[in-house]
Amino acid sequence: MARLYRPTIPLEVKCRVALRQLGEMWPDSLLSEYGRRRQYGALLNIMLGKLANLLGCYSTDLRLDHDPALVNRKRYVRNGKVFYVPDANDAEYLIYREKLDHDIKTRVRGDGAQLSDLAIVRKRKRKERKAKAPKRKWPSRPFRSQVFGGGAKKHLRVPSGRLQRQN
User: Fold this and answer.
1) In the Cβ-directed half-sphere of 104, how many Cα atoms lie within 13 Å?
2) Domain boundaries, the chain
């Protein structure tokens, strides 16, 4: 299977995700201030430090997770370029998770009692395979008399009213 196209996530989007998770009320004003000085990297380091402190981990342990995963999103190709619905770099569908939590969501189980990202892929492929498989008609069973050479005897009514046995 070919590797899935993953577009690079800009620093501004990463900052927007971190600010959203921290509950910042007006992220646009903060982003415009740091954007004028082209210091999104400095803002991101500050925000990831605060977020890591809230989650009880190191900032190096944080991973940016697509939710839903890119492999589970609808995608289409236009002029040789891959597009996702919703967009792969949409800040509303990205979330910072601890490294272990990200791995669990991807491979073991999803958020709460949901399926993991890879389990959803397997389930979708299984449904597609079943949909493509041709429907076969159940073979009709032969009657017992045809199988065992006799079995139940058939009786016919003769116009005289008596029953006659048919061989």
Assistant:
1) 10
2) 11-121
